[in-house]
Amino acid sequence: MYGIIVWLSNGAEGPQTVVRRRADGLPSRLFARTYHTMRTIILGGTGFIGKALARLLSGQGHEVVVPSRNPARVPAALGLGAPGARIIGVPFDGQTGAGWAEFITPDTAIVNLAGENIADGRWTPDKKRRILESRLDAGAAVMDALRQAGVLPAVLVQASAVGYYGARGPEPVGEDAPPGANFLAQVAGRWEASTLEAEALGVRRIVVRTSMVLGRGGALAKMLPPFKLGLGGPLGAGTQMVPWIHLDDEVGAIAFLVATPGLSGPFNLAAPEAVDSRAFARALGRALGRPAFLPAPGFALKLLLGQMAEEVLLSGVRAEPTRLLAAGYRFRHPSLSGALANVLGRN
């Protein structure tokens, strides 16, 4: 995807060589690689990132399995009701592998994206409990499914976030940096550890530390109303770093990591262009043709949103995609201006 074509199916076809043009349409480069076709199970497949990944794979004719509490509604929820769409909704109780463990084969990829939204309002004690427990429960479900299946999948992708590193300054932070100590860092660390046992079993495990994902929906949708009115601007002092990635590259990177057999361990999913909150606001204002000079006072954000504002909105980290670039991944949207223009339909 975006430079390579990937995986998936039901494992019946065996290895195949696939050649496709780059998604950016450049005619001078063709890419050929050999893969075993695979089935992919996506926990969190009806979320913002999961939908994009499932749609991409299903649109290419691959098989996608989405465990869900409402499995019959999965195809419609993903907009995949068209005939021939290769997607299966299967039962999921949120804590075990019951209902979906039988879909695991040696040629299966599991992508665990499940977890409560961290930026959806003030963090009450109950909200913080749900943020953590939803992630630990999903990890426990993956491990239970592996035990039930009796066979190991080809690869496991475990979601995490750049919040793993805690609040940092403008210095670049690679995947070898130590974890932070705030709430988000603790959650990310325990989220990653929830499926660590899979490595001891012999499963190739990839940890994707995701930054803010730009697409039609997600965090950007919440920012647009004030910016469209010319009332947007940086958050607080505006000096905190804002790591970001386009949704195309988020799912493209996940696909790339799955399809490259030698890759494992943590990867920062963040675009190469580093910006702070002031630069992000300016770029969004320019993309919309609106001024973006009105800062949101930090004290007001803390008063309204408490700890969530301190850790999500007013703190940041300059997460560098060091290992992803070294592995050969080529970003489709490496610049913020280009990414915003694409999302907003202005390129």
Walk me through this protein's architecture.
It contains 12 helices and 13 strands. The protein has 347 residues and is α/β, with parallel strands linked by helices. It has one domain: Rossmann fold (3-Layer(aba) Sandwich). It has a 7-stranded parallel β-sheet with strand order 5-4-3-6-7-9-12, with helices on both faces. The protein has a two-stranded antiparallel sheet with strand order 1-2. It has a two-stranded parallel ribbon with strand order 8-13. Helix 6 links the parallel strand 10 and strand 11. Helix 1 packs across helix 7 and helix 3 runs parallel beside helix 4.
- What is the CATH T-level topology? Rossmann fold
- The global form is globular
Structurally, the number of domains stands at 1
CATH class: Alpha Beta
User: What is the total tally of β strands?
Assistant: 13
The mean pLDDT is 88
Question: CATH H level: which superfamily?
Answer: NAD(P)-binding Rossmann-like Domain
- What kind of sheet is the major sheet? 7 strands, parallel
What gyration radius follows from the Cα positions, in whole Å? 20 Å
Helix content: 25-40%
Residue stretches low in confidence (pLDDT < 50, at least 5 long) are 1-36
Level-2 CATH architecture: 3-Layer(aba) Sandwich
Protein structure class: alpha/beta
Distance between the termini: 21 Å
Strand order across the largest sheet: 5-4-3-6-7-9-12
How much beta, percentage-wise? Answer: 15-25%
Tally of contiguous helical segments? 12
Element-by-element helix/strand order? EEEHEHEEHEEHHEEHEHEHHHEHH
